[in-house]
């Protein structure tokens, strides 16, 4: 019995060792891009619904758009406007740099939307329970952004030969402002993320093909 047990343990040890020697084929890049596009599409659908709801219920105008000139009057938005316009005018097309750029912008948007979520909680405290706030819905979008970032980091490591993405260098802060400024600031950032995520879906679709 002892001999049989020893033989069993010996075979188990060989199987265990062989499992480390057997190479695991990496997922094709096209599959990783497809996963990223699927996640970005989920975010786009979820966020678009939130964006429409806020415009309709809070501002009574489903077609409302904060123009560039109006956004410059919102306190503390100068830095965001510069960052957003930099992405819109970017000419980067090669995949390694483009994925890094998307990761950086997602870092910035995720941090900004976290602050919008905090603003929503503050608005609720200032306006009372009868005023509808959207902190929970924004939190779901922020969580979805995290899932997309995880998928893009995998792509980034593949494209950069194992090197990991180091994170955005931009520091995201909000200036203190009154209630009107706070709700406009939130809408502006939600509006801009809605525009960005549509661009991202198109980018990932192009990279996939």
Descriptive overview:
This protein is mainly alpha-helical and 209 residues long. The protein is built from seven helices and no strands. Helix 2 packs antiparallel against helix 7 (179-208), helix 5 (95-127) packs antiparallel against helix 6 and helix 5 packs antiparallel against helix 7. The relative contact order is 0.17.
* Mean pLDDT over the full residue set: 85
Q: Tell me the strand percentage band.
A: under 5%
Main sheet overview: none
| Low-confidence sequence ranges | 1-9, 14-19
Helix/strand structural class: mainly alpha
Q: Give the total of beta strands.
A: 0
Assign a percent range to the helix content.
over 70%
How many helical stretches? 7
Tell me the span between the first and last alpha carbons: 59 Å
Gross geometry = elongated
Radius of gyration: 23 Å
Order of helices and strands: HHHHHHH
Layout of secondary structure:
Blueprint: H1 2-21, H2 29-57, H3 68-71, H4 78-88, H5 95-127, H6 135-159, H7 179-208
How would you summarize what this structure contains?
This protein is mostly helical. It contains 7 helices and no strands.
List keywords for this structure.
209 residues; 7 helices; elongated; disordered N terminus
């Amino acid at each position: 019995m002892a001999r049989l047990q020893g033989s069993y343990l010996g075979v188990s040890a060989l199987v265990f060792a062989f499992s480390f020697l057997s190479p695991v084929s990496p997922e094709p890049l096209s599959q990783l891009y497809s996963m990223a596009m699927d996640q970005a599409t989920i975010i786009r659908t979820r966020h678009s619904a939130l964006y429409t709801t806020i415009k309709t219920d809070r501002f009574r105008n489903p077609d409302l758009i904060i123009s560039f000139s109006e956004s410059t009057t919102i306190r503390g938005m100068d830095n965001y406007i510069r960052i957003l316009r930099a992405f819109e005018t970017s000419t980067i097309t090669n995949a390694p740099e483009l994925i890094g750029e998307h990761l950086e912008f997602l870092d910035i948007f995720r941090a900004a939307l976290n602050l919008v979520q905090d603003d929503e909680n503050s608005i609720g405290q200032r306006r009372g329970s009868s005023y509808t706030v959207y902190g929970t819905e924004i939190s779901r979008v922020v969580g979805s952004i995290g899932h997309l970032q995880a998928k893009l980091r995998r792509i980034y490591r593949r494209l950069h030969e194992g090197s990991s993405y180091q994170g955005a260098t931009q520091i995201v802060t909000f200036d203190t402002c009154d209630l009107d400024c706070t709700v406009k600031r939130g809408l502006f950032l939600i509006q801009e993320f809605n525009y960005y995520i549509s661009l991202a879906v198109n980018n990932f679709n192009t990279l996939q093909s």
